[in-house]
Amino acid sequence: MLKITALNKRYGNGELVLRGLDLAIDEPGLTAIIGSSGAGKSTLLRCINRLIEPTSGTIVVNGVAITALRGKPLRHARRSIGMIFQGFNLVDRLSVMENVLAGRLGYVNATQALTRRFPQRDIDHAFALLERVGLQDYINKRADTLSGGQRQRVGVVRALMQEPKILLADEPTASLDPKTSQQIMALIRELSDELQLPVLVNIHNVHQARTFADRVLGMRFGVMIFDGKGEDLDDETLDRVYEGTAGRGENEEPGDASWLAGAKAP
Amino acid sequence: MTAAPRPRKWRKPSAIANPVLRYGLFVTVFAYLYWAVATLPINWDRILQGFPRAVRIFSNAWPPNFTRSGLMISGFTESIQMAIIATVLGVAISIPVAIMAARNIAPPPVYAVGRAIIIVARSFHPIIVAIIFVKAVGFGALAGIFTLMLYSLGFVGKLLAEAVEEIDPGQVEAMKAAGAGFFKTLIFAVFPQILPRQVGLSIYQLDSNLRASAVVGVVGAGGIGGTLMNAFRRFDYDFAFAILLVLIAIILISEGISGRLRRGLS
Amino acid sequence: MSRETGATAAATTTPVGYRWQRYTPLQRFGRYAAYLIAATGVYWALRTLDVHWPWVWSAPNEIADMFNRMSPPDLRRGDAILRAMLETIHIATLATALSLLFSLPTAYISAQNTTPNAATLWLGRFILVATRSVNTIIWALLFVAIFGPGVMAGILAIAFRSIGFTGKLMAEAIEEIDRKPVEAITAAGGDKTKIVIFGIIPQVLPTFLAVTILRWDINIRESTVLGLVGAGGIGLILQGAIDTFQWRTASTILIAILIVVILGEVVSSALRKRVL
């Protein structure tokens, strides 16, 4: 489903942000990437659908070497990669339904997009998904009238409208309050199970990673230094992942100060 | 995941909900267009002849003729002078009129007069005003200066009045409480708040007046406009083209300078 | 005791030798320099301008005299004036509509985030600058020379001038859009057309409507003078009245123009409030 080989990314003439990174995802399930900001999590995700151009390396998604494509084949390949964004990335002035249908923009032609006459099966699919996430009463409401959690649910539906074969989520809950954040992660987890979809999520909250992920990847300065199950993620590993950085993100469960015990003195 | 889709229709809700209003609007627009085009006196033969004429004119206009530079320089110099004087004097008279036209400062009868002055100053195109001044005070730059003063009054006066209406009333209140009279209140509470806006407006108006001064000459109010008009009348299209090129260049330079100045101020 | 305290109090509460300056020396220098430059400019302008000073002093009298001659307004040619005003409005409306056809594509290629390449960016910017810098009247002169006197020249002149105005504001609006929806549409596999339809148009629509309405309002004003160079509208009748010294007819025309312009402003600000 996803195979990354020797991925390097350098911005301009600076340092390598991704250094010879290898990653393979062969089965459905939720994989969480943790790491401090600057570790390259966002860059990694955006290289997979080539929103960011890799400097070198190969990425094979759903059997297609996406790094070798341009133009129309690239756009077609992107259709099967769904993405959920930290900032929701909705079109504020359009309605929930239009935002959700935007997930089909890789499949319809310009006239259909202009007149908003999408195929009936897309409309049916949209209604079904919106009911699934509980937004069936908001279909014609403007996206900017929704709360943060509702907006991210629209984002999730939009990604699923693509009928993707893999889902990428770039810190989907970073802009949400703790309770909503839990709900959204739970929703993504449920959908991953229901649709048997491999999901790759950037998370800054280690606790959520442990709770929701089948597999956790620890990233530090462009390489994976941990790849295993959530329960195998001990404090020593966490220290290494976040070494020399400010901390491990907000929304830590109160009372879980075990990381403090293992932290090195400044 | 969910049951078989029920065929539910969705169309993007129209901006105008009432179908009668919506179709009525369409019909009105088309009817108007038809009526306007039908009643306008258009001589289609003459227009078709226009294309070969255009070719002839453009071939005459190239290359641009800069040889009569003396005439050009004196024309442009006069335009620049007119713009400078008109801006200074125009902004000067705008200030009292703006105060008069500010609802929060001026008593109602004064406000009415102030607003009326600004409306009249803005409603008439500078060319019309120029014609009248030319008839009143004779051909030449004087008519142009009066015209541009009125033009400045209309623009700067209106925006300055709006700025005065938006000041913080607290400062005026404080001055009144300290026992300051009308003019002192003006100087200490009103002017400091509108000064940045006023300087910005003055610079913008200088730029505007430069543009307008090139045009009032067309009706004899001085400046390069007269030179341009004569060039057209005498079919000296290459000279006219040269004038236009220099005009565009001067406007660009002045716009660049004024933009930089205004940015530096804010 | 009290005197001692009083003296101490005075010594600590009355500062000595403070000076208050409103501006630092550098700021003062800057202000004086600015005044000096401005004053020099004005002085030069006044000195070298070829102005007949006797005419300047007699100006107020002349203007007052003109006002006398213009009142009361003469209503006899009312229907001709009405027809001409209608023609003026038609010219403004049709020209504004026509200009949209050209200003939107030009705006698209003039915005740094949507232009295909550097050449189109340059071309777009050039079109916008040229059409903005050349005044409507000058365009009218050109089109009268090409297409002859009449409303066509007027419509084209106003349309061309409007391209630069509307195009520049729309290009700025396009450059200022939120890029995030564009990112999302790209990630979903949308091409440039889809990005425009779903990502750009919804974001710039309010600006577009506001700018178009504003330009229509300005164009009504501009159309009133087209007749002076033979490009149709009320200007022709006005010029005729002034040339034949029929001041009272002229003032009727001026009042008609005033009414139409004010109506245009009322309509356009009402429309703009509905849009935003």
How would you describe this structure to a colleague?
The complex is a heterotrimer of chains A (266), B (266) and C (276). Chain A has 266 residues and is of the alpha/beta class. In chain A, 35% of the residues lie in helices and 22% in strands. Chain A is globular, with a radius of gyration of 19 Å. The model of chain A is unreliable at 249-266 (pLDDT under 50). With 266 residues, chain B is mainly α. Chain B folds into 2 domains: 19-61, no CATH class; 69-265, MetI-like fold, CATH 1.10.3720.10. Chain B starts with 18 loop residues before the first helix and ends with a helix. Chain C has helices at residues 2-13, 25-48, 53-70, 78-110, 118-133, 136-147, 151-175, 179-187, 192-223, 234-243, 247-275. The model of chain C is unreliable at 1-11 (pLDDT under 50). Classes of the chains: A alpha/beta (266), B mainly alpha (266), C mainly alpha (276). The interface between B and C is large, with 57 and 58 residues.
Q: What is the level-2 CATH architecture name of the largest domain in chain B?
A: Orthogonal Bundle
Q: Reading side by side through the largest sheet of chain A, how are the strands ordered?
A: 6-7-8-3-9-10
- Overall geometric form of chain B: extended
> How would you sum up the major sheet of chain A?
6 strands, mixed
Gross morphology of chain A is globular
Text of the CATH class of the largest domain in chain B: Mainly Alpha
Q: What ranges of chain A have pLDDT less than 50 throughout 5 or more consecutive residues? A: 249-266
CATH class designation of chain A = Alpha Beta
**Count of DSSP H/I helices of chain B:** 10
Layout of secondary structure:
The complex is a heterotrimer of chains A (266), B (266) and C (276).
Chain A: E1 2-10, E2 16-25, E3 29-34, H1 41-48, E4 56-61, E5 64-65, H2 71-79, E6 81-84, H3 96-101, H4 110-115, H5 120-132, H6 148-161, E7 166-170, H7 178-195, E8 198-202, H8 206-212, E9 215-220, E10 223-228, H9 235-241, H10 258-262
Parallel strand pairs in A: 3-8, 3-9, 6-7, 7-8
Antiparallel strand pairs in A: 1-2, 1-4, 4-5, 9-10
Chain B: H1 19-39, H2 44-61, H3 69-100, H4 108-123, H5 126-137, H6 141-165, H7 169-177, H8 182-216, H9 224-233, H10 237-265
Chain C: H1 2-13, H2 25-48, H3 53-70, H4 78-110, H5 118-133, H6 136-147, H7 151-175, H8 179-187, H9 192-223, H10 234-243, H11 247-275
